[in-house]
User: What shape does this take?
Amino acid sequence: MIEKIQELIQEIVNFEVSNAEEADQFRIKFLSRKGLLNDLFEDFKKVDNASKREVGQKLNELKSIAQSRSNEFKERFEAGSSSISKDLDLSLPSEVSELGSRHPLSLVRKEIIDIFSHIGFTVSEGPEIEDDWHNFSALNFPEEHPARDMQDTFFIEKKPDITLRTHTSSVQVRVMENQKPPIRTISPGRVFRNEAISARAHCIFHQVEGLYIDEDVSFADLKQTLMYFAKEMFGDKTKIRLRPSYFPFTEPSAEMDISCPFCAGKGCNICKGAGWVEILGCGMVDPNVLENAGIDSKKYTGFAFGMGIERITMLKYQVKDLRLFFENDVRFLNQFKSAF
Ligand code: PHE
Assistant: This one.
């Protein structure tokens, strides 16, 4: 019997198959219920006790060889791993795939972060789904106050109000609630307003909020910081001007214009002949807002500003229609490749 087993081992070791069907035939011949190995195990019962040990070991050896050979065949012909064409030259270089480009809004967002991080501003983020307190009440928007209508809000739930944040000023409140002054941070993020989509407006857009709280922060600090930003972003010759404005959470409040980057202030169709274009809202943080967030308004003062990333990008790259930022047409996006 030992010899018979040895012969079978030889046969199995030399066995070759060339397709899945033959691999299956191998399995049936040796390993199935009616296969050769089962017959041998039947015969094994009749082996006399003296040889049982030796024959048993040999039989087990045969079984494990047959099993591993069968697995090997099976894997070889399993779907996917089958016949790679002999004509295929795997050493050839592959087709060059085109490199993508960063989205212009990401480029400008990064640039804004870089500019402010050079003067010590950190980056903070807050949730896009916001409660009434952080989006409105803590920012000094009294309930039912018409100022709430300035921002056409998307409501998720009413009473208590849960909204999509209408501005990144909500992050100001969260930062002040969680950090002690001095605070110097910017908060980039998406904001949502229920506005009709046009070349100049969208229901989703991006803002960057800035917040600076410390002892003795003055309006001059605000102006200096924004002037630095404008020159870094739009070039050294850029001028700024601040016009009085109103926001419930800042007092005094202002809007900032820069000299038109296209005509250097001479007047063109981008600035509608004015020589100036508006880029952001700003002001000194209202003492009520500081107190709402648990900061002592007798000891600390601060400034805040908020700008739209789309607006800055449109001015920087002469994009005339805001909708282009959301359509992701590669002919548009490819133009920003060199701006990496
Ligand atoms: N949150 C204001 C807006 O969305 C902008 C702003 C931010 C104004 C900070 C003043 C201070 O219009």
About this structure: The chain has a mean pLDDT of 91. Residues 2-85 form one domain.
